[in-house]
Amino acid sequence: MLQISRKNFYLKSPVLFAILLISSTLFFFSCKTNSGNSTAENNIDTVLTGTVNAELTFAPNVPKPLTYTSPKKVIVQLETIEKVMPISDSSEYTFWTFGGHVPGNFIRVRQGDLVDFTLKNAPESKMTHSIDLHAVIGPGGGADATSTAPGQSTHFQFRALHPGLYVYHCATAPVPMHIANGMYGLIYVQPKEALPKVDREYYIMQSEFYTKGNFGLKGLQEFDEQKGINEQPNYVVFNGSVNANAGKNALPANVNETVRLFVGNGGPNLVSSFHVIGEIFDKVYLEGGEMVNRNFGTTLIPSGGAAIVEMKMDIPGVYNIVDHSIFRTFNKGCLAQIKVKGGRDTLIFRKN
Amino acid sequence: MKVVFAILFFISCLSCESQSKINIAAEKKMVKVKGGKFKTFYVSKTDKPLLVEPFLMDECAVTNKEFLEFVKANPAWSKSKVKRLFADSNYLKHWKSDFEIGESNKNIYNSPVVNVSWFAAIAYCSWKNKRLPNLAEWEIAGNAPPQNIQYTSITDYIMKWYEKPSLPVLPNVKTTYCNTYGLYDMHGLIWEWTFDFNSFISTGDSRNTSNNDNNLFCAGASINVTNREDYAAFLRYGFRGSLRGNYCISSLGFRCVKDLPSNKL
Known about the structure:
The complex is a heterodimer. Chain A is mainly β. Chain A has helices at about 1-10, 15-35, 175-180, 225-230, 325-330; strands at about 50-55, 55, 75-85, 90-100, 105-110, 115-120, 130-135, 155-160, 165-170, 185-190, 200-210, 220, 235-240, 250-255, 260-265, 270-275, 285, 290-295, 300, 305-310, 315-325, 335-340.
């Protein structure tokens, strides 16, 4: 009786029948494509094809694009190091770092990879550190598994399933202070279909510092908790210090080259109005994700967020990279530069 | 289960040591700490404070020289004999050998002993007929204001130490400040073990909100923290939370405490 009524129900419901038909067809189809290789990499049961050590770089360098086409086990080892480094030409600061630099190591993996992650804390460290990678799906983004005392190391694994550019940072109490002292970096999960090849890739990370002494004051500067709470930094910088990539350290490029910047904002507080003076972004992967916007001048990068920007350099000269909340550039150090060399294209720009 | 075995084994070791007690050199000076009501900085306003009885505390941290006496009297705690379960491979790594700090390390004889595990610290205290302070006792002792230095705020003073990377050679004990109890170097020289170092937080992620010990976070749940601006305390508790009993760390030592005779019934 029940069966008959069910049969009637199906017959009387052409819409439902159609849905069933379509979904079963889709199911069949998806099974077929799964047996190929295009969607297989998001399937965590996929057999890994070998193990590689991740290439790790420091700003402004980016690891080479990954050329392999099936998921691998990728070994990543970062070390947390506390050390005194210059924050400007005249002043120093006790930075807490990933890898001894601010920002920390750039990590590049490929969508579908199994990341085998070890966090080491240098024996000389005073503090416990950990890591929260925004590319991780799981409690604390890894922080839960990586609370690491000085001289110790911790380990966890995660599957990099979502392509994009992500910030990582320390998540040990008090989190704001660990971030304010320099503990952040970027991890790029390269999509299965890699972005088009460009001439140059650079790593730029904005962040701010809260010191007792004012901007540029000579000597070792102390962290100022109250300024952090008030969100009033003395220093806003790209790549960890004033002029880290300006002047003689400007990022080189040639006319007609396309430059891709992997830009992160470590915060801990400020949102960046990221702009390159005299250039127009040909393409921006908004917030480091899949959505592309074209032909505009200033992109917003949230604290703890990122963006991938691309521009073709048409005219030789020096291009200032700024946070267009512009006091930060003129009074707090937020400046990097691209120095473009080569022939002059008078059809686009002419100076009398 | 493993932990239970470890503790049982450990207790049996302790009882061995108490038999091997031999002449102890000049006793370390202990000072009286008043005790009182203690509230961790991260508890909610409705939590009841903990009552801490008065106790005696070593005036300064246990030194390398003092710890050497202990190791000589208890060879099971020498570098080569100690069980990995009780002390990791960094145990006394700054010493020359099992029973020598080393001629080249002369300047650290009177520096706090570091690279010692919680198990080793407990064994030492027990050998001295003392014990490790619990967290509440240590915090009460440590929160007393300095009496012989100029300072604007104790938190600022502590933060300055926290911010500086470790020195290559650890200064001697009694080289920082003395507080109103007469305790030296409660802050500014080393971290110190407490008996219940990991009793307040059980996960590494300081913002976790999913379990009982969820009061120390800097994300949403930090509304529970009564003094959210005490970053020095955040760092101290955060450090303790990452420890395990066998960890040996180059900035972590200890001092002992003892109950006042009047405390005992």
